[in-house]
Design a protein that fits this description.
The chain has 356 residues and is mostly beta strands. The protein is built from 5 helices and 21 strands. 13% of the residues lie in helices and 38% in strands. A 9-stranded antiparallel sheet has the order 1-17-18-19-13-14-15-16-10, with helices on one face. A hairpin with a 2-residue loop joins strand 11 and strand 12. The radius of gyration is 34 Å and the shape is rod-shaped. The protein starts with 10 loop residues before the first strand and ends with a helix.
């Protein structure tokens, strides 16, 4: 077992972790109250496409697709109550295939296959902007970044995270402390190892076997405690039920040293809670211009109107003829190649075209 059986019941120091692990990336919601779709702490809007059709469920309805670092959110323009929230952890595959859209006809669309609570759901999104691959490139790139950054969000046992007794660092990860002489109390005899304390997670590995290790993101820490065990005072880390609800115990000597490690972990967790890092790093290479940037100031056209002979009279042909009692007979005009109403004797087609 990788858990710790604690014999004692006396709590000496306890730090409850108030940061809750995100659920937005692990669930699918349909037609939720709009206020429940607000971004949580640490969630970032990466891109927003203002003209996307939910072709599978709301074919013919235009909406906005919001791409965050945890999920896809689709909001119908007609009613915000018609919406979708699709967590990336539920996604099985993303493909580009042909579909029939009421607004765009036969076209390429984004097919998102998901699984949630034992059921499979398929979503089809069509970008209504002509010749724009932004929907495909953005969603696929963000999902790939999410899928390859699980160590930021999930507890990992016996992973390839240690190389030559050094921690394999994640992007933007910083090691604040390396603590030697840390006993893991998961076995009756204990295992001597090393702690790495970073800005994102806690990592312990056995000195004699690097593959015997555990990586615990602050995101999955439920509580940090110092309490009595059959080995004496122990540093106890309890993880959230979502990642298995592990209770992991560690021992450091002397007791003052364990107190220092406890305070350091608690402090770093509080800092992390203010601005959680979910591991999806991005940069906007081509940001679409805003409406304000697209506005063009009004200016007068630099046009000179030249009055020519009989040109003023040609405008009169566009007004109703007071003496006219009915339509004249149509006649074929060879120059235009079509039939027109017979003109008055004092007008010609060339005069009418001179108005333009």
């Amino acid at each position: 077992s990788d858990g710790l059986r604690l014999a004692g019941t006396i709590w000496s120091i306890q730090a409850l972790c108030t940061l809750t692990a995100p659920t937005q990336d692990r669930e699918i919601k349909f037609d939720s109250p709009p206020n429940t779709l607000e971004l949580r702490r640490g969630e970032v809007r990466i891109d927003s496409l203002n003209s996307v059709e939910d072709t599978k469920g709301n074919n013919g309805d235009r909406g906005e697709l919001i791409v965050t670092n945890l999920r896809l959110i689709w909001l119908c323009h007609k009613s915000k109550k018609t919406n979708l929230s699709i967590g990336y952890n539920c996604v099985i595959s993303i493909n580009i295939r042909t579909t029939d859209s009421r607004l765009k006809g036969k076209t390429q669309a984004l097919f998102v296959l998901t699984k949630f609570n034992g059921s499979r759901f398929e979503f089809v999104f069509t970008n209504l902007v002509k010749n724009s691959p932004r929907l495909f490139t953005t969603v696929q790139a963000v999902f790939r970044a999410y899928d390859t950054s699980k160590l930021y969000r999930d507890l990992k046992l016996r992973g390839a995270i240690i190389k030559e007794k050094q921690l394999v660092m994640l992007p933007k990860e910083q090691t604040y402390n390396k603590v030697n002489g840390v006993w893991n109390l998961s076995a009756d005899q204990g295992n001597l190892g090393t702690f790495f304390i970073t800005n994102i997670r806690l990592v312990w590995h056995a000195n004699l076997a690097e593959n015997f290790n555990v990586s615990i993101p602050y995101l999955q820490l439920k509580s940090v405690k110092i309490r009595e065990s059959k080995f004496g005072a122990a540093l106890v880390l309890e993880t959230t039920p979502r990642c298995g609800g592990y209770i992991l115990g560690f021992r450091l000597d002397p007791a003052e040293r364990m107190q220092e490690v406890f305070k350091e972990i608690s402090s770093l967790h509080q800092v992390y809670s203010m601005n959680p890092m979910f591991g999806i790093d991005f940069s906007v290479e081509e940001k679409p211009p805003s409406l304000h940037e697209l506005k063009v100031p009004r200016k007068m056209d630099d046009v000179e109107i030249v009055d020519e002979e009989d040109a003023g009279d040609a405008f009169a042909a566009y007004y109703a003829d007071e003496s006219k009692t009915g339509d004249r007979e149509p006649v074929f005009h060879e120059g235009l190649g079509l039939c027109i109403e017979q003109l008055r004797d004092d007008y010609s087609v060339d005069q009418l075209w001179s108005v333009l």
